[in-house]
Write a structure and sequence with these properties.
There is one protein chain. The chain is mostly helical. The chain has five helices and two strands. The chain has a two-stranded antiparallel ribbon with strand order 1-2. 12% of the residues are buried.
Length: 157
């Protein structure tokens, strides 16, 4: 049991570090997310207006703000779980399920609303979707591992 709680604590710390980095980067980019300027997208050529319309979409802005709020809330839960894990108490699993669920839902919405990106006849939408899915899976591994070790740490009946 102790071994699994230590592993859960380690992966929980990874989630805390990733969460802090995410919150800081989101806060740094929030002004540009909420008030995008078309001039920043002009380097994209013919796709500039399409990308600007995408980032200026109220749904995308709302998802960004909601994601920030959920990320801050999850960080609070992860810090509380870290304290419990240090005291060798099994914390609740719902924050980790929420992290996985919200990450998948947010990505699905983003992929569905993502504009079709074509440059010189090549479609980059598929490539960006695949890269996004791969990174999403990589960043969900710590949450999955915490859940696995929490289940393994529970006493058998």
């Amino acid at each position: 049991m102790e071994e699994h709680l230590k592993k859960a604590k380690t992966w929980n710390m990874v989630l805390i570090i990733l969460g802090l980095l995410s919150v800081v980067s989101t806060l740094a980019g929030l002004p540009k997310t909420l008030n995008p300027k078309l001039s920043h997208y002009e380097v994209m050529g013919s796709m500039a207006q399409q990308m600007f319309d995408y980032v200026n979409n109220p749904l995308i802005k709302g998802i960004s703000v909601l994601t920030l709020a959920i990320s801050i809330g999850l960080l609070i839960f992860f810090f509380r779980a870290n304290k419990k894990l240090a005291d060798e108490i099994i914390p609740a699993k719902f924050p980790y399920y929420l992290k996985i669920g919200w990450s998948l839902l947010g990505s699905a919405i983003g992929f569905m609303l993502q504009p079709k990106m074509q440059m010189e006849g090549m479609d980059f939408t598929f490539v960006t979707t695949i890269v996004g899915i791969v990174f999403q899976i990589i960043f969900l591994i710590p949450a999955i591992l915490v859940i696995v070790h929490l289940f393994k740490a529970e006493p058998e009946e």
